[in-house]
Amino acid sequence: MLNKIQQLTKSNFARNVAIVATGTAGAQAIAMAFSPAITRIYGPDTFGAMGTFIAIFEIVSPLAALSYPIAMVLPEKDSDAIGLAKASLWIALLSSFIATLVLLTFKTPIVNTFNLKAIEPYILLLPATMLFSVLVAIATQWTIRKKLFKLKAWSTIMQSLIINSMKTGFGLINPAAMILIATTSLGYLLQAALIWIGIKTKKESAFLTKEPDKPILDLLKEYKDFAYYRTPQILLNSTSQSLPILMLANLFTPASVGFYVLARTVLFVPTTLIGTSVGEVFYPKFVEAVRQGLSGRYLLIKACISLAAIGCAPYIILIIFGPSIFSTIFGENWFEAGEYARWMSAWLFVVLVTRPIVAAIPALSLQGLFLAFEILSTLLRIAAIFVGYLWLNTALGAIIAFSLINIVIYAILAGWVIRKS
């Protein structure tokens, strides 16, 4: 056992995971340290407005660059990755411009149709946030490709410290939804800037100026699966994951959206800390194994089992003590968020365990089948929310049904991808 532990600590994979996890942990620790103050400054209704904005952004953001940044890890030549980055940026500029025109022309009908009055004053921030998120995606994928994990960790920590300080400081002056939404949008631009600064100080600075060897149109055609299959898949997944927020906003009160947003934020801490760290290091390792003609099944099963062992403790604690933990840390107004967290914990634990599964899909060329799977999953999630709403006629009932169907969906996905690998 001791030898296995020593081998694990000496492996590059474990060290890289530890580096990324340190950055993510630092950022999450900072966010959690500020949360008791922020939740007491703003309140559930204001959080609900921010949550609605984020839900809309998560739905439209996959269209910003058509998922081409994700492909940057795959090419053998850096020049091809550079071409994909530049193509992604041009697509993002065009899509943000189109989104701005659409919102300027049809803002009132859109707001009335989808009951978005809570975020109407801030809806024009969406196109800018889309563009900023693509800048982060490009920078992040380059750090993953070049294994600049320390840079990624540093930028994540600094972004969290600056943005949460702004939310708290400006909130003391004016605790309005505009502060939460604007700082959330600015956070993407800030993190992109921090990563670019780090890249410039390293030997990778040529990435900013070097011209790609292949024509950009050829690269877009070569990696068209990301636009044809991965983008609709991510769009459907984002839509289905945002459904609770949008439906809570329409069927219940803004406060219920706020409860869900806080519960999801807290529960995503272990998922983000552990799952993202493993996923970012696992993805290039899995791609390399597939290139060499090796079976990826062992790598997938090992990664999933490891995540299950590491991540079970925090979710079990929240299932047992969720309401009391939330009311103690965030204030008595947030007791209901703890009830949401109880049921959401089992679902997000499964999400954590299956992060390597989702990361492996592009390398296995399963994106077409994954799109079909996502369509079916979205329909099941919609049906589950309606069943929960009709079953208990409460926001909590909708959350319970949504959580249970997600457990089933992710379990089926894991078995399917492992079999294909």
Verbal overview:
- The protein has 421 residues and is an all-alpha fold.
- It has one domain.
- It contains 15 helices and no strands.
- α3 runs antiparallel to α9 (224-251) and α10 (254-291) packs parallel to α12 (335-353).
- The longest helix is centred in the middle third of the chain and has 38 residues, at 254-291.
- The protein starts with a helix and ends with a helix.
H/I helix tally: 15
For the record, give the distance between the C-alpha atoms at the N and C termini, rounded to a whole number: 29 Å
Please provide the count of β strands. Answer: 0
Shape, per Cα inertia axes = globular
Mind summarizing the main beta sheet?
none
Average pLDDT number: 85
Q: How many whole angstroms does the radius of gyration measure? A: 21 Å
Structural category: mainly alpha
Beta-strand proportion? under 5%
Write the layout of secondary structure elements.
Layout: H1 2-10, H2 12-42, H3 44-60, H4 78-113, H5 125-145, H6 149-173, H7 177-200, H8 216-222, H9 224-251, H10 254-291, H11 297-330, H12 335-353, H13 355-360, H14 367-392, H15 395-420
Helix pairs in contact: 2-6, 2-10, 3-7, 3-9, 3-10, 4-5, 4-8, 5-7, 6-7, 9-10, 9-14, 10-11, 10-12, 11-12, 12-15, 14-15
Q: What is the compact description of this entry?
A:
The chain has 421 residues and is mainly α. It has helices spanning 2-10, 12-42, 44-60, 78-113, 125-145, 149-173, 177-200, 216-222, 224-251, 254-291, 297-330, 335-353, 355-360, 367-392, 395-420.
